[in-house]
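Q: I'm building a small set of examples for a reading group on sequence design. Run inverse folding on the following structure and report the sequence directly after it, with nothing in between.
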């Protein structure tokens, strides 16, 4: 393809973009909003999956002890733990130590706990299992002991996260599909208006022997340009919005920093740019299929 031809395509596409005015910016805004929502869902899923994998790798169980437990029961429990070959390590956490740690974690909100007449936290034994241990069987073998009132594991969080992922996937998919259809509709109407505005020029080009693809190309580039600009705006919104949100969350839960920072932003940028250009191209093709046959 000659350089002059490429230059003609782009100059015509920019002319059409400028003449479209409000419709062109309506298309860009809709694409940007759609891809921002899609990107938000992708970041959400990525972070949840990363957190899920992190929890699954932490074979940790917390046993909450009864306040009425005797010293003998506690000694028997510790002996049982030491003799179990599935245990990597264990730690006893006194209820008073746990309350002090909670006050430290709450920072400025720590005075809220000063009015407590009784420490509501239980004594806890935290157990780290070996990688090949069967968590479910191990948990059952200890839950039956009288000294243990309750227990929790990373698996409990995993189950909650899985439910959340499944629930949001269906909602997010329908929202993205509806916005995608809205994008296509606006792009089709924008290109249609551009074709109508330049119908005399198109007719002259046909009379001098221009092929349909030669006539179509500026419109296709115009659609892809609109999709590209919309994608870039979405990426900018996501980058600053995600950075702000992560700073706010990690200031409250510092341990999450190492998890959420592993999300790769470059692949997301590539996906959004590709989707934006594809939306613009497909919308233009739908419009031109009807008006330039």
């Amino acid at each position: 393809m000659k350089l002059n031809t490429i230059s003609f395509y782009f100059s015509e596409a920019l002319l059409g973009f400028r003449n479209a005015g409000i419709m062109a910016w309506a298309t860009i805004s809709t694409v940007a909003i759609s891809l921002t929502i899609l990107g938000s869902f992708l970041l959400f899923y990525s972070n949840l999956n990363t957190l899920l994998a992190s929890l699954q790798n932490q074979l940790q169980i917390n046993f909450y002890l009864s306040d009425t437990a005797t010293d003998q029961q506690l000694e028997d429990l510790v002996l049982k733990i030491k003799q179990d070959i599935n245990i990597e390590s264990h730690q006893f956490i006194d209820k008073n130590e746990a309350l002090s740690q909670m006050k430290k974690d709450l920072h400025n909100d720590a005075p809220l706990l000063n009015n407590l007449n009784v420490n509501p936290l239980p004594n806890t034994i935290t157990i780290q299992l070996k990688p090949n241990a069967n968590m479910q069987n191990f948990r059952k073998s200890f839950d039956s002991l009288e000294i243990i009132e309750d227990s929790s594991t990373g698996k409990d969080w995993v189950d909650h996260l899985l439910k959340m992922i499944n629930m949001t996937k269906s909602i997010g998919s329908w929202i993205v599909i509806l916005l995608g259809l809205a994008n296509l509709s606006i792009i089709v109407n924008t290109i249609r208006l551009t074709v109508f505005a330049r119908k005399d020029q198109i007719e002259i080009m046909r009379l001098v022997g221009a092929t349909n693809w030669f006539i179509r190309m500026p419109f296709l580039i115009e659609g892809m340009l609109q999709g590209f600009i919309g994608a870039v705006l979405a990426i900018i919104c996501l980058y600053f919005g995600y950075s702000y949100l992560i700073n706010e969350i990690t200031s409250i839960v510092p341990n999450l920093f190492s998890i959420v920072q592993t999300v790769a932003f470059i692949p997301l940028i590539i996906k959004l740019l590709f989707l934006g250009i594809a939306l613009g191209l497909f919308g233009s093709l739908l419009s031109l299929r009807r008006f330039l046959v």
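Strands lie at 60-65, 87-93, 124-129, 148-153.
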